[in-house]
Amino acid sequence: MLSLARSLVLKKRITTTLAKAKELRPFIEKAVTKAKKGTLASRRLLISDLHDTEVAEILVKEIAPSFKERAGGYTRIVKLPRRNHDAAFMALIEFVK
User: Fold this and answer.
1) For residues 23 and 30, what is the distance between their CA atoms, to the nearest angstrom?
2) Torsion angle of C-alpha atoms 85, 86, 87, 88, degrees rounded to 10
3) What is the average pLDDT across 67-77?
4) How many domains does the chain fold into?
5) Is 97 in contact with 80 (CB distance < 8 Å)?
6) What is the pLDDT of residues 5-29, one digit of tens each?
7) What is the CATH number of the domain that holds 59?
8) Helix/strand/coil (H, E, C) string of the chain?
9) What is the pLDDT of residue 97?
10) Contact at 8 Å (CB) between 55 and 39?
11) Do the beta carbons of residue 2 and residue 77 sit within 8 Å?
């Protein structure tokens, strides 16, 4: 799940299975809430959660400021057609603008 979270922060939108998107959503929502605080303690918590200082800085400096007025619901999951070779349910998860 950490690699999915990193990819979402770096690319702002990713395509994955529906189950993985649903599992990723609460994790990334909590990370954005921590990033909105912008304190040193919240940055350290983000780094320990994500295991990546670059991704934590992107969350704090780029993504969190755009959600200052928003109380929650930072991500959106859009269902896509099933994958051909194994018929897995697919989804697009992205940050709301």
Assistant:
1) 12
2) -120
3) 94
4) 1
5) no
6) 999 999 999 999 999 999 999 999 9
7) 3.90.1030.10
8) CHHHHHHHHHHCEEEEEHHHHHHHHHHHHHHHHHHHHCCHHHHHHHHHHHCCHHHHHHHHHHHHHHHCCCCCCCEEEEEECCCCCCCCCEEEEEECC
9) 84
10) no
11) no
pTM above 0.85, yes or no: yes
Q: Which two tokens stand for residue 95?
A: 């940050």
Q: Which two tokens stand for residue 12?
A: 């702002």
> If you search the block for the tokens 């994958």, which residue do you land on?
83
* DSSP bridge partners of 16: 91
The encoded tokens of residue 71 equal 């109380």
Measured CA to CA, the distance from residue 29 to residue 56 in angstroms comes to 13
Asked if 95 contacts 13 with a C-beta cutoff of 8 angstroms, the reply is yes
Query: Distances in Å between the alpha carbon of 6 and those of 17, 46, 68, 81, 93?
Result: 16, 12, 21, 24, 13
